[in-house]
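Quick start: read one record
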Amino acid sequence: MKQYINPKYKKFVSLLNFSNGKYDIVDVFKDFVTMYAIAIKNKCYYEEIDEQMYFKTIEKYKRCEMEIFLELREELENLYMQESKIRDVLGEIYYQIGAIKKGNKQFFSPKEVGILASLLAKDYLSEGKREFDGVYDCACGSGILLLSFGNVLINKNIDYTKKAFYCGQDIDFICFCMTYIQISLYRYARFSHLGRYTKFTNKKNILYTRVFSRKMGRKNETKCKNNIGENYEKKKI
């Protein structure tokens, strides 16, 4: 059965399918997400292992094919700019291209569940009359709960970039990258954690957004210097 593709995503999906079957569309998506996450992270802090992973990922493509990834990046950023609200763009595309399969043992929460959970969390936090909210998702997938929480704060006229701290965790490397990309583009102050444990004992499994890094200040800059490449080698899927 042919998978439904949202009309607004058709151009992006068409770019993913540039090879007409030479490369699997899901593999192209995963390569794009991996390289884009590295590009964003490198703007915050550079690690050679990430650069090596970037070139290792793209070397399978011919030079003329590499330009497609620049077009994918441009089209993705256009999709975010066109949205009036925070939206799980990558998660929706991931689902619509058939990347989520029963064999992967994955299940992404519907956006309605994310909205409900965010409303309940916000009401609970409001009882304490805190000026600064925090939300943690231990199985973040593409980041739907964190994104929904941002929308809830916007609806309450609260600056989600300054009045909240966000943490997403997942054992899946691509989910880890999708969440990191989306929250970075929406300028959340937060970090992503790759792994199974709620206790963040391994700091090398944590990536921070640029906004969070700036809030930490230059004196804490070394605390932010972790890498994607090392995480990938440990959590290959």
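The longest helix spans residues 25-44.
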